[in-house]
Q: What sequence folds into this?
């Protein structure tokens, strides 16, 4: 009397389940990366219709109470030039994104513009769409 096994074990590997998991992770990371803001400072940016395609190497932010930040690190106006030189060096075609609150006086913005011009940095004024 011959006994035969009813359940045969399949030794093949199916990668369909792994592909689904990787695809879902890819979608998750693409969606969450678009939700990340470049600066964590709350600023009311001025409105503008023109968008620039240049990619800035760093950001300088001026808050409503005239505090100055390079990326997320607070600096004083006296330290700004040395911090930018240390961070960017003297590369040609270096772009800096300037984020200022609407209520910041133009004189304060002009100080940052003068520092950028003195070091041959190109400044991009960040705005919100109209």
A:
């Amino acid at each position: 009397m011959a006994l035969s096994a009813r359940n045969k074990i399949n030794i093949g590997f199916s990668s369909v389940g792994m592909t689904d998991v990787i695809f879902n992770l890819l979608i998750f990371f693409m969606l969450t990366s678009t939700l990340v803001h470049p600066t964590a400072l709350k600023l009311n940016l001025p409105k503008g219709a023109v968008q620039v395609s240049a990619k800035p190497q760093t950001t300088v932010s001026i808050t409503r109470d005239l505090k100055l930040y390079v990326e997320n690190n607070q600096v004083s106006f006296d330290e700004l030039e040395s911090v930018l030189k240390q961070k960017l060096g003297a590369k040609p075609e270096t772009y800096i994104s300037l984020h200022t609150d609407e209520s910041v006086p133009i004189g304060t913005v002009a100080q940052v513009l003068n520092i950028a011009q003195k070091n041959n940095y190109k400044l991009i004024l960040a705005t919100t769409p109209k």
Observations:
- The CA atoms of residues 63 and 101 lie 6 Å apart.
- Residues 47-129 form a domain with the Nucleotidyltransferase; domain 5 fold (CATH 3.30.420.270).
- The helical segments are 16-34, 77-88, 106-118.
- The first strand starts at residue 47 and ends at 48.
